[in-house]
Amino acid sequence: MRIGLVGYGKGGRFFHAPLIASLPDATFVGVVTRSAERRRELLADHPGVAAFDSLAELAAAGVEAVAISTPLATRRALILQAIELGLAVVSDKPFSADAAQAQELLEAAERRAVLLSVYQNRRWDSDFLTLRKLLADGVLGVISRFESSIERYSPRSVGKLAGGGVLLDLGSHLVDQALQLFGPVARVYAELQYASPQQSVDHGFFIALTHRNGVVSHLSGSCLQSTPRPRFRLSGSEGCYSVHGLDGQEAAVLAGLTPKSAGEGWGVEAEDCWGWLEQGERRERVPSQRGEWLSFYIAFQRALVGQSGNPVTAGEVLANAQVLDAARLSALEGRVVVL
Known about the structure:
Rossmann fold, 15 strands, Dihydrodipicolinate Reductase, domain 2, single chain, 37% helix, 6-stranded parallel sheet
């Protein structure tokens, strides 16, 4: 696979480029960025990977696929352009401003028979994979409540939020994970937080989802929270699993590591980061599964040659967008939204 990248800000530089550069049987052809600073960073990070001024130039260099990691305001037009060029697309999240825009992009890809996927890398977080294993093994019994949270204290982020704030930025991941675990949603209740009356986008959110199978998911995110909740707390009839802190792959890429450079150490969590299984006085460590962000791109690569399905399907993308739309409506009108 010959693949390129559009955008070399934080998302492109740290969350896409290290994985693309680590892909077996793939060539990282180049990056679209006009910024002189970004081009210097690209040269230092990935010598030999070319910089391009436009997506059209990147396509002319012979790529088959492109990852698009630009601000949400520019993403729709770039995705449509890539589709018209016949390129397979990995879109960063948030994928769209709302469900209507998501539908438009998905239909455009379907008409052109182009593979379009969304970068839900947190399906391959170590803690999420651990949680899925516990559910598959039936360790927790009948599940009643799922709590999932990504909260940070980063005041500098408030002024940089755009295109839906933390709800779309982090909520896209948390809603996707809840849907993966417990399926379709019947009811949505949400609250949004704003740093000031002048702030046009949220810096924090809380969403309560009632799944059709009866499980309740409580999801929250913030960039102004000094005391974060557990990353996950999953309560069942036979016990509760909880874990604090973020999967270590984020810290690894921000430190300049890649799956290729880290080798067998990639995605391995230290024992003091493992979660806990508890019931009454019983309390024991649960070894974390190995994090596997690269698995998204490997699955995308296989889908491109017809060896497997899309790692994030159109139906999953649309269901996510519909829940986020319902959350915005719920927060605006102060009511439960029925789907």
